[in-house]
Amino acid sequence: MKISFLIHNAYGIGGTITTTFNLARALADHHDVEIISALRHRERPNLTLDPRVTLRPLVDLRHEKDDPRHLTPATVFPSSEYRYQQYSALTDARIGEALASLDADVVVGTRPGLNVHLALQAPARTVRVGQEHLTLGNHPPRLRSTLRRVYPRLDAVTTVTEADASAYRRRMRLPGVRVEALPNSVPDPVLPPSDGRERLVVAAGRLVPVKRFDLLIEAFAAVAAEHPDWTLRIYGKGEEHQRLRALVDRLGLYNNVFLMGAVTPMEAEWVKGSIAVATSNFEPFGMTIVEAMRCGLPVVSTDCAYGPGEIITPGQDGRLVPVGDRAALSAALLDLVRDDGLRRRMGVAARQNARRYAPAPVVAQAERLFEDLLEARADDRRRTDRADHTLVSAGHALRDTALVAASNVVRTIRKARR
After folding, report:
1. 245 and 98 assigned to the same domain
2. Is residue 350 in a domain?
3. What is the DSSP letter of 70?
4. Residue 120: domain span
5. Per-residue pLDDT tens for 57-88?
6. Same domain, 209 and 172
7. Full-model pTM
8. What would the pLDDT profile of 274-324 be if each residue is shown by its tens digit?
9. Could you tell me if 128 and 256 lie in one domain?
10. What span, in angstroms and rounded, lies between the C-alpha atoms of 68 and 61?
């Protein structure tokens, strides 16, 4: 089958881009796959795209950012969507044109605003799937109202956790729309897993407030005080860099905590560590958690909504601690730092348990979903054809009955005249 993904900007960096590239690469083993990028701001993507996957940008900001249409507000892309200010009359037109000419069997949107485009503009012959990479509860009320009105035109909505899928089924009125949890996948590791011997804790993500790297640095102070030979490496970039740097200096942790900058891919960095940690206040899924587990690291994470609790089995492959609880975070890290055997056992379990997020099972689930939707669409066409045939047959029968009746009337009139 031919599968098209519609994404915000394939040339940037982020979890949605990563998981879309991963899924596209895995699907390309058996299908014709393309990624349509609404926006483009550089020559090549930051992430490596499988050469079998076609990339088609629609609006090139390097040359078109001053186009009068791009300075005119969008009317299709919903104004209540987080990215609205980056969309315009130009993106409305280009996305509409791309969807109108689409020859794909399945088209997949990757954020609410783009899913609205799919629902309103994708061809009726194409199966329309709206992916949710955040959560329903994370959307403002106005956006939820828009989605409730428009999403019934989709064939399916997928979420990255079962908790969010349940929220969609419970809180949205989507008759006839299939709602299914389809987790993100992480490519199979190519390096040997961590052996749990290095005195190194690893974290990764955007340096933004919601990730709470400040909490991690503060919690790690207790680890460094008891075990000064252990270090923490934080990978990523973002607005919090200077504030986190100042916090490291203020706590005197400059020999123990290091801000490493952004690294892609992260596999070579994960396998150097012995423990991974995630401290977000909110996490729709938790790609870094899965990446670390696939590399053989136990993960200590805050038990935030929605992802960590579905990924980590506490006591088996990691630990979950209350959101914002610095003391609990320190204690969980120290438990693993102090116990080499526990750390290694959990690392082995983490690698085994995270196999459910490998490309093969996730892609198999996606393929089953797409095939089911295509079959349902074919069944609808067959039912429509049968109904049309029945109507035509009924029309013919009525016509024949009417002709016979008219003929009988004529014969009766003729006999009366004789």
Report:
1. no
2. yes
3. G
4. 2-181
5. 999 999 999 999 999 999 999 999 999 999 99
6. no
7. 0.83
8. 999 999 999 999 999 999 999 999 999 999 988 999 999 999 999 999 999
9. no
10. 13
Q: Could you tell me which of 147, 142, 89 has the C-alpha nearest to residue 119?
A: 147
65/1 Cα distance (integer angstroms): 35
Q: Are residues 166 and 218 in the same domain?
A: no
Looking at the structure of the chain, the number of domains it has is 2
Q: What's the rounded Cα separation, in Å, for the pair 332 and 118? A: 45
Q: What is the DSSP string of 24-72?
A: HHHHTTTSEEEEEEEEE-SSS-SSPPPTTSEEEEEEEHHHHTT-GGGGS
Q: Tell me which H or E stretch contains 38.
A: strand 32-40
301 and 320 Cβ atoms separated by less than 8 Å? yes
Q: In terms of Cα–Cα distance, which of 331, 328, 286, 330 is closest to 304?
A: 286
Task: Report the alpha-carbon distance of residue 275 to residue 327 in Å, rounded.
Answer: 18
393 in a domain, yes or no?
Answer: no
Total Cβ atoms within 10 A of residue 94:
20
The closest alpha carbon to 230, from 265, 193, 255, 212, belongs to 255
From CA 280, how far away is CA 257, in angstroms rounded? 18
DSSP-derived 3-state class of residue 297: coil
pLDDT in tens, the chain (418 residues): 999 999 999 999 888 998 999 999 999 999 999 999 999 999 999 889 999 999 999 999 999 999 999 999 999 999 999 999 999 999 999 999 999 999 999 999 999 999 999 999 999 999 999 999 999 999 999 999 999 999 999 999 999 999 999 999 999 989 999 999 999 999 899 999 999 999 999 999 999 999 999 999 999 999 999 999 999 999 999 999 999 999 999 999 999 999 999 998 899 999 999 999 999 999 999 999 999 999 999 999 999 988 999 999 999 999 999 999 999 999 999 999 999 999 999 999 999 999 999 999 999 999 999 999 999 988 766 665 555 555 555 555 565 665 556 566 556 666 766 5
Residue 279 located in a structural domain: yes
Q: Are residues 8 and 98 in the same domain?
A: yes
CATH number at residue 305: 3.40.50.2000
CB 215 within 8 A of CB 324: yes
Pick the last residue of a domain from 181, 213, 230.
181
Same domain for 231 and 152, yes or no, is no
- Quote the DSSP letter at residue 79: T
- Is residue 413 in a domain? no
Among candidates 161, 182, 186, which has minimal Cα distance to 296? 186
Domain co-membership, 60 together with 177: yes
